[in-house]
């Protein structure tokens, strides 16, 4: 199976590259930009095109969100012309006001924000005009490298003693980019084998949590990892923010359909964070050893 991945520096693109390198059944072609032409698509001849998400569209400039939607529209036209499956990953922030109960796949986002509505319009065009699509709605992605990685930004701030501000009244399901990459390749492999299960799916981590609690847990685990390796560092503090004074805003995705159709289980974010912190600490130790060797 050959996959074309757009936006080479995105944390999900890097995660897909790592996952594909461990497999013998998946070939990746990675494009630097976020748009593909029909002619380029014809020359590559992939089985599917994967478009990584805007991780935090609510906090982005409207022009950037609109540019992303325009690029996805262009990809849709190219995929229609070449009959190549389209996989578009989108942020849970499209559910701008959340819901008190877990959000099922048939619930189409209806945000008030103009730029978010532009993304929903693109999703409507995909659903109405091209059967061979997967729209995969994700919780907030975290990874150690790449754009939109989030976790690396938190760690970098904490290590230099900088305070990290995080909302305590926004509830979501943090989602490992590595877990999403594994799930997407598995889903597309099943599609290539005739599953024919196109449509919208939700994919997120287990255990709904506030931004503040998630960030605080990262700080606690990071401190434990560093102390276990003999490092004494005064980490920055995590400061709570409040955006919704009347009630907590919940963006919790119900991921039952992706389990029922593809057998994809949600990954516990705590385990994924712990694994990534192990990797971060090991890389840090190796870099320090290399620096000592270079200065000797």
UniProtKB/TrEMBL annotation:
Q: Where is the RmlD-like substrate binding domain?
A: 66-279
The protein's name is: RmlD-like substrate binding domain-containing protein
Which organism is this entry from? Halovibrio variabilis
């Amino acid at each position: 199976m050959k996959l074309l991945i757009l936006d080479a520096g995105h944390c999900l693109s890097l995660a897909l590259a790592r996952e594909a390198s461990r497999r013998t059944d998946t070939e990746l072609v990675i494009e630097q930009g976020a748009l593909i032409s029909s002619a380029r698509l014809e020359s590559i001849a992939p089985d599917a095109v994967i478009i990584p998400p805007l991780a935090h569209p609510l906090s982005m400039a409207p022009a950037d969100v609109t540019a992303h939607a325009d690029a996805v529209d262009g990809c849709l036209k190219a995929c229609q012309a070449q009959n190549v499956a389209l996989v578009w990953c989108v942020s849970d922030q499209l559910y701008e006001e959340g819901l008190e109960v877990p959000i099922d796949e048939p619930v189409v986002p209806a945000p008030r924000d103009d730029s978010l509505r532009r993304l929903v319009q693109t999703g409507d065009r995909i659903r109405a005009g091209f059967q061979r699509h997967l729209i995969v709605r994700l919780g907030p992605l975290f990874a150690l490298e790449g754009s939109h990685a989030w976790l690396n930004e938190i760690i970098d701030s904490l290590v230099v003693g900088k305070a990290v501000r995080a909302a305590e009244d926004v509830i979501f399901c943090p989602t490992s980019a590595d877990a999403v990459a594994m799930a997407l390749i598995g889903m597309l492999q099943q599609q290539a084998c005739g599953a024919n299960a196109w449509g919208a799916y939700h994919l997120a981590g287990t255990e709904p949590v506030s931004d503040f609690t998630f960030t605080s847990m990262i700080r606690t685990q990071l401190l434990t990892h560093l102390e276990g390796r003999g490092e004494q560092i005064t980490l920055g503090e995590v400061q709570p923010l409040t955006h919704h004074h009347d009630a907590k805003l919940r963006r919790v995705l119900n991921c039952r359909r992706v389990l029922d159709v593809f057998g994809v289980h949600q990954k516990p974010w705590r385990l994924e964070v712990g694994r990534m912190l192990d990797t971060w600490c090991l890389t840090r130790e190796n870099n320090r050893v290399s620096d000592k060797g270079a200065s000797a």
